[in-house]
Amino acid sequence: MLADLENIQEFAVLSKHDLFTAFYKGKKVFVKQYKVRKGRRKGDIENMRCEMLCYSEGGFSDMVGFVGKSEKERVLVLEFCLFTRMKKTKKNIDRLFRLFCRDLQGAHVRHLLPRDYENYLLNVYLRARDLQRKKIIRNYALIRKVFELNKKKLIRLEKNFSQGDFTFNNCKTHKGKIIVTDFEQARKDTPLYDLATLYVDLYSHPILREYFLKKVKRLSYYDSTIFQLMKLRRAIELLYGFQFLDKRMRYFVNSKTIVDEFNFENLMG
Q1: 22, 56, 79 — which closes off a domain?
Q2: Phi and psi, residue 137, nearest 5°
Q3: Cα 118-121-125 angle, rounded to 5 deg
């Protein structure tokens, strides 16, 4: 879908998607639209600011500029590239792991907010309770208990840059270079959440996920308890988000398996 960016506001309102292509000064560009939803103003504006900072300060993608007149609705314009979808292979796992350890883990993007686990865990519980009420999962009480038992450990986590949605789909290639294309949930968080996210993304490929897990366990800051909790957190988020999307059924089934077969006893201490 193409448009003249001089009329981008009108075009964006008519678009069903928040990411599309357009022309800007004779170049084809990616356009990312941010909307502030009623009742979620504070969180949506924070997400918008965080992602803009990641692109402009982190150096993970070439940014052309911004269009938009107000904070209520702005449009981020990125340089357009014909991205290639990354295949799930051991070679690409090695490439993503190097990218994570070299660039993402070491990123120091200013003004990112730390993850407030005291409040964030409440969102995890609400999602899990809603999933149990809909009979999608059966272990809400155990989920809450295992997070509460480890809450102090989570709150003391070192605050690093966390991409927030570190998956093959959000890391594409262009001219042999990996480009990160989505920082929607970027925060100061534990880097083990990013790695758990990629692990869940590889879940339907047993050989690849075990290969990836061996690499994660070699990290100096690897913590089995935190990694397991982050894997559970990601699975709950995917279950909650994809419960009505048939086209994402593979993610739904994988996430449900992770939650249903989660070994709570090891984390009860």
Answers
A1: 79
A2: -125, 170
A3: 145
Helix and strand numbers, DSSP H then E, in the chain: 10, 8
Tokens standing for residue 159? 């605050």
Helices (H), the chain: 8-14, 41-58, 90-99, 117-133, 140-149, 151-155, 191-201, 206-217, 224-242, 249-260
- Do the domain assignments include residue 85? no
Residue 205 has pLDDT above 70, yes or no: yes
Q: How far is CA 34 from CA 12, 80, 129, 163, in A?
A: 10, 18, 29, 18
Average pLDDT value for the chain: 80
What pTM does this model have? 0.82
What Cα–Cα distance (Å) separates residue 166 from each residue in 15, 176, 181?
26, 19, 10
Note whether 268 and 149 are within 8 A (CB): yes
For the chain, the first-to-last Cα distance in angstroms comes to 54
Strand partners, 63: 78
DSSP 3-state of 22: strand
Domain annotation covers residue 19: yes
Query: What percentage of the chain reaches a pLDDT higher than 70?
Result: 73
Token representation of residue 27 = 């170049």
Domain count along the chain: 2
